[in-house]
Amino acid sequence: MIRVRIAWFVPLLFAGALQANFSLPHVLSDGMVLQRDKPVRIWGKGKEGAEIKAWLNGQDGKTTVQKGRWSISFDPYQAGGPYELTIQSGEKTQIIKDILIGEVWIAGGQSNMQWSLSGSIHQRDAFMMRDNSRIRVFKQTRHSSATPQFDTLPAKWMPSTSDNRKHWSAVAYWFAADLQKRLGVPVGLLINCDGRTRAQHWTPLETFRKTKGFESNLQEALTAKRTFESRRIKYEQELATFINKRKSGEKTGPPPSYYGRVPSGYYNAMIHPLKKISSRGVIWYQGEHNALTTREAIAYRKFFPLMIKGWRDAFGDPNLPFLFVQLPRMSENNPRDLAALRESQLHADRNVAHTGMVVSVDVGKEVGLHPQLKKPIGLRLAKLARGQIHGEKMPIVGPRFKEFSVEKTELTLRFDHLPSGLKTEDGNPPTEFTLCGPDKKFHPAQAKIMENSIVLSSKEVTEPVAARYCWRNECFPNLFSKNGLPVEPFRTDAFELPEKNPQ
């Protein structure tokens, strides 16, 4: 933890540093993976007016440094490698070795995406896997910045070995392992995540500036930028005090972050330096910190699509796929409103093009903030990518609520994406359904499967008006399609949501 927080201000030491005629960002380095079937871009800093030449697997390019920056683009390649990239300017020549071309994915989010293999339930499965140099990871040190950065903190590409991958994101690893096995091509992961972050922290400042209705977020980001230096100095002083207390044996926690969790901060430091990278898409697991109140959870319906648009604009790809995880269960005593947040995620899945959502509310028996069963989530994301992007013919999403009807005291639910029918995994009646009448008070409902529908009733509700499924933090559903995919949490009503656990 100490190491990470110290690293947050390392870029200040290197800002504006140039080598002889040119320099490269850390992501363009030995062992990197480049995206197949898309233009390959390389870029860097350089001496004004210097000519830059580059050669990669039968292609060459050249450019001139302008305003201290340069960029060269190569035509798309098919999967393959290893290759070498040679860059030359004046007397300086740099060779980047062991380059593979395959599938490149950006993995981002909060602590559940950050959660490592060494802390997950299937860690033994991962550690028993053979070393695989065709799976590689560029894992950033989590950090933030008041301004858009040219480069990441120092990092390098690492192949999948038992020692390396134990520190990787468990969700991202299982996603990559499945893709590499199924597609038979190299897979590269760019991992960028940190706990307690909101979607706003990952959204470009320019996106706030250009979009009406987000003026307060823009102002917050601009204020953080103005106070950056004073916050940094104060934090360094507090950190030094903390280290000295720990050395003397005093039990105390580290100081809070000084500037990191503000609008645009994490985008500036961890995503902006990668914006010239060609990738297949993004896998995203985040939202817990946008659900601290019901109001925030509902607002995520605006913030998440805005973040997606910001990234697509930055990467120059309006169709950049975003595959994301709908949040899992959590203790009912937690003040977060996960039901409202899941609905906001469902809204993005339905209304934002080129997105896809996997359900995780059924995974594991834990109800903590960090469920340790990550493998099924990674595999569901991989299945979604294989079906939605690579055209593999198979069911990739579970049953989705379509419509309902009421007859006397019963309410019947019907679903889309149900090619094989419904089942319960334990053979018992379906759980986690509630019903309400005209009074809008919800009661537990008895549910039964009738062909491809669910019929609900309740002794407390004689005149059904609406139904909900998994509409709480701590839910344990047992309803699946017969091909093993969980039913998505939903509600049939559009009632105004009261604040959960009001203070």
Describe this structure in words.
By secondary structure, this protein is α+β, with helices and mostly antiparallel strands. It folds into two domains: 1-12 and 101-397, 3-Layer(aba) Sandwich (Rossmann fold); 400-491, no CATH class. 26% of the residues lie in helices and 27% in strands. The chain has helices at 2-7, 11-14, 111-114, 123-128, 162-165, 170-183, 205-210, 215-226, 228-247, 265-271, 294-315, 338-351, 375-388; strands at residues 22-23, 33-35, 40-46, 51-56, 59-64, 69-74, 80-89, 92-109, 132-139, 157-160, 187-193, 281-285, 322-325, 355-358, 400-407, 410-416, 422-424, 433-436, 442-444, 446-450, 453-457, 466-469, 479-481, 490-491. The strands form five sheets. Strands 2, 4, 5, 7, 8, 9, 10, 11, 12, 13 and 14 form an eleven-stranded mixed β-sheet that branches. Helix 6 packs across helix 13 (375-388) and helix 11 packs parallel to helix 12 (338-351). The chain is globular. The chain starts with a helix and ends in a 12-residue tail after the last strand. Mean pLDDT is 91; it is low at 1-19.
**Which word captures the global form?**
globular
Percent in helix: 25-40%
- Total strand segments: 24
Radius of gyration: 25 Å
Major beta sheet, specifics?
11 strands, mixed
CATH topology of the largest domain: Rossmann fold
CATH architecture of the largest domain: 3-Layer(aba) Sandwich
Query: What fraction strand?
Result: 25-35%
Indicate the mean pLDDT. 91
